[in-house]
Amino acid sequence: MEQILISIRDFLELGGTVLTVIALVTGVLWILVLERIYYLKFHHPKMVRKALALWKIQDHSEPWFTQKLKRRLMSLVSLKLERNLALIKTLIAVCPLLGLLGTVTGMLEVFEVMSFTGTGNARAMASGVSKATVPTMAGMVTALSGILVITWLLRTAQKEKRLLNERMLNQAQSPQAIPTKHLPV
């Protein structure tokens, strides 16, 4: 375990301060992704059951009220389903920009070393070159993996909304609806 922590520390030092920022952004990104996966697995089915229960006991003979209730239930489920997805997309977009910032700061360090020692000392420039390339790589890896996950999350959200809409339509057409006037939603 100690060796792993030493390796992580050495990697962060290799990339400089910008790599530490990228690591923090990556940590926040994956915490949000894991929260969304947890929601989809454990809380979303409960939310759908509640929405369908309210929908099932509604009197579907009043089209205006039925349509408003359906919109409200779909909106509530969609709101919970799409929570933090925009923030996840933003963090994914920020990662390559932070990598580019690392490239710029690393190259500035290379130019600074070149101005003091000349162009012949490659060993002196190595630190700046690593600070220029490692954050770029880290930002791109985080962004690419994030794109895969956000695509899956967005498709899953769309699929879940479509399934809920279809289930509501199927229940509205069944004759089991119990007449009630106004439900507290």
Number of strands: 0
Unreliably modeled segments? 177-185
Tell me the series of helices and strands, N- to C-terminal: HHHHH
Average pLDDT across residues?
Answer: 89
Biggest pleated-sheet summary: none
Structural class: mainly alpha
Shape: elongated
> How much of the sequence is in beta strands?
under 5%
Question: Helicity level, as a percent range?
Answer: over 70%
Distance between the termini: 51 Å
C-alpha-based Rg, rounded: 26 Å
Number of helices: 5
Key structural traits:
single chain; mainly alpha
Note down, in words, how this protein is organized.
The structure is a single chain. The protein is mainly alpha-helical and 185 residues long. It is built from five helices and no strands. It is elongated, with a radius of gyration of 26 Å. The model is unreliable at 177-185 (pLDDT under 50).
